[in-house]
Amino acid sequence: MRGPLIGFVAGAVAVVLGGGGYLVAHNLSANRNNTPVATSSQARSGGITVRGHGIKMTFPAGWVNVPTSPNQFRQFIKDFEDNHGHIPAALRSEIDNPQLLSSLAMLVVRPDGQGNVSENLDALVAPFDPTPSQILAQLKSGQGLAQFGATDVHESVTNFGKYPGVLVTFTVRVKGRTTYGAQSYLEGPVHGVVTSVTSQDAATGEADLKQIVDTISFT
User: Which letter, b or e, does each residue of 51-75 get, where b requires 16 or more Cβ atoms within 10 Å of its Cβ?
Assistant: First the structure.
C-alpha cells in the first residue's frame, strides 16, 4: 500500500504545486501522442460535462476544458493569448515532468473574463487499494502535502457523491503568490481518483471541488 500511494500522492502534489499542472508548449514536443485525453460536451445545467480516463464530471457554467494533447494545447494557449494579449501566470507554470500533462484525466479552468484564470481543476486516475481511513492515516503521517511546502493543511474523511474519500485543504506559495487548494482522494469502484482545485479564494475552491466531484461517475 505504501509505495503506489506515495507515488500517486507525489504526482498529484506536483500538479498542485506546479500551479495547476500546466506546461508551456515547448515542453510538449517530446510527447508525440496527439490523441485528445479528455472531451467535453454541453451539460443541461448550462455548464460542461468532461470525460477522460474512464471518469466523467460536470462543471458549472464558466469552466473551460483544456485540451491536453500537445497540438491542441499549443493552439489553446495561442488562442488565449490572441484573445487576451497575454498568458496568465497559471498557464505559464511548468512542471519538470513533461509527461504529467498527458497523464491527467482532465484539466479544466475557470477564466475570470479579464484574461486571468481564477481557478483550475485537474484529475488523476490510477489503481490504488487503501481505504479512505488508510489514506488519511498516511497523509497525516507526514507523507502528504506538507512535505512539499504546503501550510494550513487539514484532512478529513468524507463522501463525494456515492463514493467515500478524503478531503484535504491547504495553502501554498507558488512563485511569490498565495494559492489556496482543495484536494479529494476518492475510492471508486475500479480506480482511485485524485482531484485538485487551486483557487484565489480558499472557500470558493473547497466549495467548487465538492460540487464538481460530487457529480463524478465512472464510464
Answer: bbbebbbbbeeebbbbbbbbebbbe
Largest CA distance in the chain: 47
| Structural domain of 195 | 2-218
Residue 30 has pLDDT above 50, yes or no: no
CB 155 within 8 A of CB 139: yes
Q: Which CATH number fits the domain that encloses residue 47? A: 3.40.1000.10
Tell me how far apart the alpha carbons of residues 81 and 92 are, in angstroms, rounded to a whole number: 11
pLDDT digits (tens, 9 = 90+) for 151-176: 899 999 999 999 999 999 998 876 67
| Single pTM value for the model | 0.84
